[in-house]
From TrEMBL:
Catalytic activity line of the entry: dTDP-4-dehydro-6-deoxy-alpha-D-glucose = dTDP-4-dehydro-beta-L-rhamnose
Species, as recorded: Geomonas paludis
Ranges that cross the membrane: none
Name of this protein: dTDP-4-dehydrorhamnose 3,5-epimerase
GO cellular component, one term: cytosol
Organism lineage string: Bacteria, Pseudomonadati, Thermodesulfobacteriota, Desulfuromonadia, Geobacterales
Length: 162
């Protein structure tokens, strides 16, 4: 990846974003995060985790070589999600896409391998993110290298969060 890569705004091929539906009743609400009958086999989760991100804090940018991330942004805060397509041969190579997700727009964001991604909590409360990637972190028994290329500390990085 050339550090002087320029990105244009647009939609990134293979990135999926869909609203989460809340089912309300007198007890509160429920939302389905994923269903095996709605996912392609290549993105079927192999594990899941939940993270908390404090207001103003960002995670990323980083990318994966083989892993697809299946993020669910529910709240109680809001996030700005940044995506950069670095996949040569992709119809959207060189595109930067920005999404808003969280309590005001509960969303699933599917990020394929080769798409650099980051998110920042833009709210005033701690934010919770659920992820169900299709690969195990550090492989079976945590015995393999982590599939992650980190860009957070690159000098003159083309992956800038505003």
């Amino acid at each position: 990846m050339n550090a002087v890569q320029q990105f244009t705004k647009g939609r990134i091929h293979d990135v999926a974003c869909k609203p989460l539906k809340k089912f309300l009743d007198e007890r509160g609400w429920l939302t389905e995060l994923f269903r095996s009958d709605e996912l392609e086999p290549e993105i079927m989760p192999a594990m899941s985790y939940v993270s908390m991100t404090q207001p103003g804090v960002a995670r990323g940018p980083h990318e994966h070589v083989e892993q697809t991330d299946y993020f669910c942004f529910l709240g109680p805060s809001n996030f700005k999600v940044y995506l950069w397509d670095t996949r040569e041969g992709s119809p959207s190579f060189g595109v930067k896409q920005v999404l808003y997700a969280g309590v005001d727009a509960p969303s699933i964001v599917v990020v394929p391998p080769g798409v650099v991604h980051a998110y920042r909590n833009i709210g005033t409360e701690n934010g919770i993110v659920f992820n169900a990637p299709n690969r195990l972190f550090a492989g079976q028994g945590k015995s393999e290298p982590v599939d992650e290329i980190r860009h957070e500390e690159l000098v003159d990085s083309p992956y800038q969060l505003d």
